[in-house]
Amino acid sequence: MSPSIGETVKDLVATPSVFARARKACAQVDYKGYACASLKSRSLTLDLVTMFFETGQFVPPASAARSAVSLEPIIEDAVHDALRLQDMRKLVADTVELICEKFPKTSQPTVRREVKSCLANVMQREFARADRSMPLDVLSGMDVVVAHVPGLRGFEPLKSLKTDYYDEFRDAASIKPNAAFERLLRLANVSSQEYIAAVEEMRGERLDDPGSVRKAVASDWAALEVLVDSARPQLVSPSELVNSVDAAPNGFVPMVAFAVDAAYLCRGWRSKPHGVEGGVLALHDFETGTGCPVRFEEDVDLSDFPGGLVQAEGVPCDFRESYGYSEEEFQSRVTVSRKQERNSDRSRNMNDDIKRTIDRIKKENPALVEELTALVLAADAHGSLDESVYDYFGEIGSEEANAHESSDGQEKELVSSEAAAAEINNAGAEEQICIILDGHGVADGERLIKDLIGDPAPKM
After folding, report:
1. What's the Cα-to-Cα distance from 395 to each of 87, 413, 414, 439, rounded to whole Å?
2. Are 132 and 150 in a shared domain?
């Protein structure tokens, strides 16, 4: 039986010379995969960041990005651009001429459609093969507003960190000097005595003087001792802080709000301590949408104030909804903290162990690692391994955390394990494969990886 037109075209396109010309054409097209600008949107960014926070910041949203974003139209556009290149137009014309000579009764438009369809299939696979973008690249360059809340642990409700008052006046003179207020003073770098003096100057009341206020109130204020950190700048003056507290009568949670690249946030914010240069000292209540945000330009080392990160944009009663603030108000330069207390010696040793494990697996199974790496890259499945790596390190982190009695120790173990997972996932497919093979055993690990990437597309 003679081959059909379709089979003949496929055989012709599969020849090395034609395939090489198609691959060369693909290389001339600026295809960026998930990093393509047309995929980026504010709503998608906020949706994925919300998922990041809702999952406890331990599960990467790469799989969500992959399901939320389709690369098909992007690849189709890239193929369309490639087929318009002069060399590809000539290739199509030459191929159509050859096929028409073999099948003279078939119309040229029919043959042309078949040739272009076959070349398009080849190019689609080539674009996918050469694509090194990651699902979270769709967030790169998109800033989102977040807030660092001192004292916050896990999924603890923010209202437990709110300020409280002695009476219904709810102002700078009636606020209780509790833990929440102390955190505000430390954030602003205003001493308790500076605040008391500012209130006295502006209100005529001396908060720690039983002759000026009730004895119980004076006793509480006299017991409060917050000193100025001479190594840090003051974010607001004592009088400005008094005015800000007056402007937030519904109570508030002290926090530092700032803008950060969404991709960086999701890829491994917790892998190292950070600081910010510029941002907003926020006296804010996410329940009522009230408070008093104050812009600052100074440096703040967030690791000085242990706590947690919360989403501050795209949530009810956020800063835009509450005050009409735009992203520009929160522009910051995010820095890596110079202090590395959170990175314990045990954590560094664990990272050394991970490197040794990867080297050992490569040495013991060089052919298998090479084969699996090629399969993962060909199937564009680098991101598919992310969650397996996170699960593996999550189990390690949980075991280490259970060995600690203190919540701080448990938190450090979880942060350390997550940082290790983020480092491996950012390193690449080969490192991911070695960790999975070690964690599950070579045979089971190989089966797991092949199940995750699925069957590769058949060759033409």
Report:
1. 54, 11, 10, 10
2. no
In a domain, 293, yes or no: yes
Tens of pLDDT along 167-179? Answer: 988 999 999 999 9
Domain containing residue 329: 143-338
113, 5 contact by CB (below 8 A) = no
Which of left, alpha, beta for 56 (phi over 0: left; psi -120 to 50: alpha)? Answer: left
Rounded to whole angstroms, the Cα distance separating 291 from 430 reads: 49
Phi and psi angles of residue 13, each rounded to the nearest 5 degrees, phi first:
-70, -30
- Sorting pLDDT into bands at 50, 70 and 90, what band is 412? low
Task: In whole angstroms, give the CA distance from residue 189 to residue 236.
Answer: 8
Question: Are 9 and 85 in the same domain?
Answer: yes
Q: Is the pLDDT of residue 455 over 60?
A: no
Angle between helices 345-364 and 366-378 (to 10 degrees): 100
pLDDT per residue over 379-392, tens digit each? 766 566 876 787 77
The Cα 175–Cα 172 span in angstroms is 6
- Alpha-carbon distance of 458 to 456, in angstroms, equals 6
Token representation of residue 450 = 């092949």
Tell whether 437 is covered by a domain.
yes
The C-alpha atoms of residue 374 and residue 188 are separated, in whole angstroms, by 53
- Measured in whole angstroms, the distance separating CA 353 from the mean position of its chain's CA atoms is 26
Please give the Cα distance from 51 to 241 (Å, whole number).
Answer: 34
457, pLDDT greater than 70: no
- Taking residues 286-314, what's their average pLDDT? 93
Phi, psi of 296 (to 5 degrees): -135, 160
* Structural domain ending residue among the three candidates 86, 119, 139: 139
Containing 218, the helix (H) or strand (E) segment is: helix 215-223
User: For residues 188 and 307, which has the higher predicted lDDT (pLDDT)?
Assistant: 188
C-alpha torsion 387→371→351→426, nearest 10 = -50
Report how far residue 383's alpha carbon sits from residue 267's, in angstroms, rounded to the nearest whole number: 12
